[in-house]
Specification:
128 residues, Jelly Rolls, five-stranded antiparallel β-sheet, four-stranded antiparallel β-sheet, 40% strand, elongated
Length: 128
């Protein structure tokens, strides 16, 4: 079976029905661009909620993914980019951008509130 690309907007879910294992690579998953607490993402892998993040009145959660970069402009700000680290600070979450699913396992990324995600690009690779 060939690799498939899932691209679109809104919630995403996938159930592995290949008969074998698959690797899932999330290139990007972007949150709704609102600063409302109704904007946010929840990620579930094989029945485990691994992360949830929401925007707030004065902050915005942009999204996550293997190919997401961060750019800061203006004075007095410093960009911070750390890869392959999960930490905890005031409710922070550790989203996963690459993982494996056995046959019949599922994964999803969905709106944490009522504002739908802006878009995503996800590669699903059967392991042969």
């Amino acid at each position: 079976m060939a690799s498939t690309v899932n691209a679109g907007s809104g919630n995403w879910s996938y159930t592995n029905s290949t008969g074998g294992n698959v690797r899932v690579i999330i290139a990007f998953f972007y949150n709704h661009p609102s600063q409302s607490t109704n904007a946010g993402l929840t990620q579930v892998i094989a029945g485990v909620t691994v992360a949830t993040a929401s925007s707030g009145t004065n902050s915005s959660f942009t999204g996550f993914g293997k190919h997401v970069t961060y750019l800061v402009s203006g004075s007095g700000t410093t960009a911070l980019q750390v890869k392959n680290v999960v930490g905890y600070q005031a409710g922070g979450s550790g989203f996963v951008d690459e993982f494996y699913l056995a046959n019949s396992q599922s994964a999803s990324v969905s709106a944490a509130g009522n504002l739908q995600p802006l878009g995503y690009n996800i590669l699903i690779v059967p392991e042969e």
